[in-house]
Amino acid sequence: MPPGPGDGQEPTVVRGRVRAVLAEPNFRLYLAGQGLSLVGTWMQAVAQPWLVLQLSHSGTVLGLSTAALFLPVLLLGPYGGLVADRAHKRRLLFLTQAAFLLLALGLGVLTVTGAVRLWQVFVIALLMGVVNAVDTPTRQTFVPELVGRALIRDAVSVNSVMVSATRAIGPGVAGVVIAVAGAGVCFLVNAASFVAVLASLALMRAGRLRPTPPVAREPGQVREGLRYVRGQMGLWAPLLMLAVVGTLAYEFQVVLPLLAVDDLHGDSRTYGYMTSAMALGAVAGGLAVTLRGRAGVLPLTCAAAGFGLAILAASLVPTLTAELVALPFVGAAGTFFLATVSTTLQMTSQPRFRGRVMALWSVMFMGSTPVGGPVVGAVADVLGARVALGLGALACALATVVGLLVLPRLPPDRRVLPHIVPEEDEPGAGRR
């Protein structure tokens, strides 16, 4: 079996690969811009559910508001991926990030002036979802253009560490800001943070990018992408596992506020502490992916099992102190699982299909929330937040079973991907 990424590699080799990724000036700019912006994004991710909970006092409505944010991804995701395959990605990112800025600014102004109503939050969430349907696959497929195919896994891993680090900062800051100044200030900070992304895109050196040739317009390209994925076991199996886990296990923006208030009798700061604790673990998970991460169905199956055990523990512990100990393990395992899915899909898919493949990643991860969010919210209303959290452990167990059923159908040398998949490789192991 060829070694997977990180298998048997000395720390000096890993550090050398990370240095090679960070040596790319465009990638450094991307990390800096995204890093600043994501602090604001995580602040809004905490403040928006809190605002909905204040306006509605209902776990079901909270779940529906989260569903509204991701419903467009479910409905439009494949078309967003096709737009990413057809477009010049840096120019498209200018448009999507500017749209996010305006929407966050609008929600912030409505909230700080006291004019905000629940229906307005839903409308803005839907509009953000429409933008996200295009933005997510575009950002995912822009990374290989920054560093080249040989460094995809390492770039995804470093990016995961950055995302996790901002996730550790943003929620904690948001909890304090909400308590002191209100949720609206979080939205305004998020709007300002998108300036950093726009500046980083503007400063990139076009000559150092490795753009994938845009796909020419032809009829039936969405169906073509779906057929391509359907014919590759190495693609549809990870996507199916992600769909199962994404539907019930990643609904933390629904279940954590309810857990903080109803079970642990806390406030917005308690919620912020819990989210930050999970995010600190996510940093560790990102570092683990960078140092020892592998891609393929076998590592993904192990990651799903570990994620399920961490969620199960978090759903059972009785006190806030114990919860703050358990949640970092949830964050680490969740980041490891998500990064493993992303890397597996990026390394397995052909460049001309990559936007459509990663659009399906967004559909299975974020697009599953319109189903899972209301379900988790309703379960929390009826049976309690701990039972709703425990649904995620069940979902991870089901994904683990899917992985175990698929593994025997894969040749041994394709269960763990080699460090670099050749540019035109369509692994035979991926076919039905």
TrEMBL record:
<feature type="transmembrane region" description="Helical">
    <location>
        <begin position="297"/>
        <end position="318"/>
    </location>
</feature>
<feature type="transmembrane region" description="Helical">
    <location>
        <begin position="176"/>
        <end position="203"/>
    </location>
</feature>
<keyword id="KW-1133">Transmembrane helix</keyword>
<keyword id="KW-0812">Transmembrane</keyword>
<dbReference type="InterPro" id="IPR010290">
    <property type="entry name" value="TM_effector"/>
</dbReference>
<feature type="transmembrane region" description="Helical">
    <location>
        <begin position="324"/>
        <end position="345"/>
    </location>
</feature>
<feature type="transmembrane region" description="Helical">
    <location>
        <begin position="357"/>
        <end position="380"/>
    </location>
</feature>
<dbReference type="Pfam" id="PF05977">
    <property type="entry name" value="MFS_3"/>
</dbReference>
<dbReference type="InterPro" id="IPR036259">
    <property type="entry name" value="MFS_trans_sf"/>
</dbReference>
<feature type="transmembrane region" description="Helical">
    <location>
        <begin position="386"/>
        <end position="407"/>
    </location>
</feature>
<feature type="domain" description="Major facilitator superfamily (MFS) profile">
    <location>
        <begin position="21"/>
        <end position="411"/>
    </location>
</feature>
<feature type="transmembrane region" description="Helical">
    <location>
        <begin position="233"/>
        <end position="250"/>
    </location>
</feature>
<feature type="transmembrane region" description="Helical">
    <location>
        <begin position="270"/>
        <end position="290"/>
    </location>
</feature>
<keyword id="KW-1003">Cell membrane</keyword>
<keyword id="KW-0472">Membrane</keyword>
<feature type="transmembrane region" description="Helical">
    <location>
        <begin position="92"/>
        <end position="112"/>
    </location>
</feature>
<dbReference type="InterPro" id="IPR020846">
    <property type="entry name" value="MFS_dom"/>
</dbReference>
<keyword id="KW-0813">Transport</keyword>
<feature type="transmembrane region" description="Helical">
    <location>
        <begin position="59"/>
        <end position="80"/>
    </location>
</feature>
<protein>
    <submittedName>
        <fullName>MFS transporter</fullName>
    </submittedName>
</protein>
